[in-house]
């Protein structure tokens, strides 16, 4: 896995989605500078997310001692549960 490529693709996709939502409401040509500036925090968020959630699986998978089935059996029960709790707590915090 090439982390730089993955972070670049994630940043580009997140920026496009973010600005499509904004441009669907209002479009002004002067906003182009903000589009470029917004890529910095979006890139930082994408880098942190990819490094903490996706990359460890690829790094762990690269070690020859584990098979794919054993890898999934090791992490499957815990990772979805942790992500669900994380998203649920974020939603509850946003609702307050």
Structure description:
The protein is mostly helical and 96 residues long. It has 2 domains: 1-65, no CATH class; 67-96. 81% of the residues lie in helices and 0% in strands. The protein is built from 4 helices and no strands. The protein has helices at residues 3-25, 32-61, 68-75, 79-95. The protein starts with a helix and ends with a helix. The mean pLDDT is 79.
What features would you highlight for this structure?
81% helix; mainly alpha; 0% strand; single chain; 96 residues
Sequence stretches where pLDDT stays below 50 over 5 or more residues? none
Main sheet, how many strands, which sense, barrel? none
Number of helices: 4
- From the spread of the alpha carbons, the general shape counts as elongated
Measured by DSSP, the beta-strand proportion falls in: under 5%
N-to-C CA distance: 39 Å
Number of domains: 2
Which sequence of SSEs, written as H and E, runs from N to C? Answer: HHHH
Helix percentage = over 70%
Number of strands: 0
